[in-house]
Amino acid sequence: MKTLIEILLVSTKLGLTSFGGPIAHLGYFHEEYVRRRKWLDEKSYADLVALCQFLPGPASSQVGIGVGVMRGGVLGGILAFIGFTAPSAAALILLALFLKGMEINDAGWIHGLKIVAVAVVAHAILGMAQKLTPDKPTKTIALLAIVAVLLWQTAYSQVAIIVIAALAGLIIFKSRENSQGTGNVEFPISRRFAVLCLVSFFGLLIVLPMLRGVASSSTLSLFDSFYRSGALVFGGGHVVLPLLEREFVPTGWLSKEEFLAGYGAAQAVPGPLFTFAAYIGAVINGWKGGLIATVAIFLPAFLLVFGTLPFWSSLRQSPRIKGALTGVNAAVVGILIAAFYNPIWTSSIHAPEDFAFAAVLFSMLAYWKLPPWIVVVAGIAVGLLFSIM
User: Fold this and answer.
1) 260 touches 106 (CB < 8 A)
2) Which of 61, 282, 293, 318 could lock onto 93 through a cystine, CB 3.0 to 4.6 A?
3) For the packed helices 240-248 and 276-315, what is the interaxial angle rounded to 10 degrees?
4) Which helix (H) or strand (E) holds 325?
């Protein structure tokens, strides 16, 4: 029970302070779970990130769920999700109820939080690159991943890049001894339960549209739309927004102005961007709709993580899988660097003072070893100051 309470408290703290989108979330997770609390080692965290990059859905939320599972089983994964997701979901539901239709501008404090994301991601990239790209072959894979992501920007590009990197690693590193070792982590999930989760994932994807076609239930239609959006999106984060727009704006469930207002609000709150679904659901059907939307869009992430973790634990012991993971981990570093440039850097650093402030925040994390929440508070304060000056 003590472990479960700890998981909930730590994940809630992350849910209240993790600004900057899915790439920044991985940096926050790395700082809290790996560096500070040592719930898992660098290699195990990198393997978990690699797995979640393979899966459709919100990668950062899936990583959080996976860490919770490692620490406290299935219930630990659920509590880690609740803690990380509830703050932003609640905030967006409240905004939908009380600020419906109001346009949300890019205020100064939001810009400050974007600069915080620059510092956090830069800090995470530095640590991961030192561990995961120690030699020329891995650095080359990371470089090629950067180039590919920046020049080939589609919903499926990251998945294709990771698959190619895995094949390259399988060939290049299959006979190499992994000096970093493989994380010694147990996944307390049975394979029978895992298979049940995978069957449920594909079953719901097939059955829900069929039920929607024969039953005139707005709740079922809402659940189906959000479940398919969560199940079919690759890349997570911002990639889900066009899917949601196509599901709900042309059908008249909410206006384009309401959709854009909610998008602006989602940028201003911590936690996963997928909680934008909570806003849409609340606009359509009040707080109940917000809860239904949140459960539906994240359910595929749960089913996939629970369904793949037990098999991942055994497969990664294979020398061939280790080689593939080496390639994937190097590609993940490249993907993180590309995302650091676009959209994080391009949407945050517009003037010399922005870069100067980012350098200070980075130093607070990397050299002064201050906790992330202090960096977040500093970002808000200086962002407000910049808007006044």
Assistant:
1) no
2) 282
3) 130
4) helix 319-339
Alpha-helix residue ranges (DSSP H) falling in 30-58: 42-54
| pLDDT tens by residue, 287-339 | 899 999 999 999 999 999 999 888 876 666 677 777 887 888 888 888 888 87
Query: What distance in Å separates the CA atoms of residue 71 and residue 33, rounded to the nearest whole number?
Result: 10
Type and span of the H or E element at 206: helix 191-214
Nearest in space to 13 (alpha carbons), one of 373, 369, 376, 379: 373
* DSSP 8-class letter at 159: H
Domains contained in the chain, number: 1
- Those residues with Cβ within 8 angstroms of residue 179's Cβ, 6 or more apart along the chain or in another chain: none
pLDDT score of 74 more than 60 = yes
Question: Cβ distance 303 to 200 under 8 Å?
Answer: yes
In single-letter form, the type of residue at position 259 comes to: F
**Residue 368 burial (C-beta neighbours within 10 Å; 0-12, 13-18, 19+):** exposed
Residues 331 and 51: their CA atoms lie apart, in Å, by: 12
